[in-house]
Amino acid sequence: MADYEFKYSESFDVTDDVKRAYEKYGFIILRGLMDNEEVAKLTKALVEFGLVEKHSYGVPDSVGREPRCMIWSHPGNDVTGMVPRSEKVVTTCEKLTGGDELYHYHTKIMMKDPKKGGSFEWHQDYGYWYKNGCLAPDLISMFLAIDPCVKENGGLQVLVGSHRLGRIDHSFVEGQQGADKERVEWIKSRCEHLYINLQPGDALLFHCNLLHCSGPNDSEQRRWAFNCSFNKKNNDPVIDHHHPRYTKLDKVPNSAIKECNNFTDFTGKEFLDPATDKTVKAGTKAWEEKKE
Ligand SMILES: O=C(O)CCC(=O)C(=O)O
């Protein structure tokens, strides 16, 4: 295993080695953060209860293909909400980012359908979030593979250590925010370009200034993932926008994902209507297709 890879177990902790890796590379990979039973339950929650059908929309890439996503503001009390509330996710993220209290900024389900799913342009998440009034790059994301997320089906790519280079200007590339292309090329000449291979249950925890992208899905293999993002309480955005300002996050024990049997009550989650999001131009909306 590379020195940015760690195996999750009940005794996992953010040791000095883990912290050093996160600070040096801008990410760590946590293998097996969720086990097979948890992944199966999360898949069921997404697939069997119409969530994706109701709330997802495309985000066109530079060649007009569309990866899809859906976003919600608050975790809620259903099975999907237990992921960004679980101790093993939140406390790990808090320790990686220096120990301050984090709150849930949003969870996204990132979807690339077989043969159809499009790319995400090179970007920093902070390229989006800077525009939302988050004054400091004090945010972290936990990208959790539900399906294998590998090169062939449009898995993540990162520029190792690029989080240390500060915020890069972002502007629209079709429906998405893309980082300044010349600067990305310069950075590629200095930072290793790494394809991240994740199996179901593996997670990438990454700094909001890490440059990352993902290619199209030309394979027969679906590529779905959770992406839970957290902001520091003391980095509460200065403007009201489409993502939440500080809201206390109620952590739950790790066992909650297995124990929760709420698949249908989404009270309080606040699914994002992309029309309110000034940082994306949404493409095909699942619910509009349904109405036709
Ligand atoms: O799902 C992907 O491939 C990319 C996701 C991403 O870059 C993001 O959510 O910021």
Automatic annotation (TrEMBL):
Cofactor(s) named in the record: Fe cation
Cross-referenced InterPro entries: Phytyl_CoA_dOase-like (IPR008775)
A Pfam family matched in the record: PhyH
Protein name as catalogued: Phytanoyl-CoA dioxygenase
Organism encoding this protein: Sinanodonta woodiana (Chinese pond mussel)
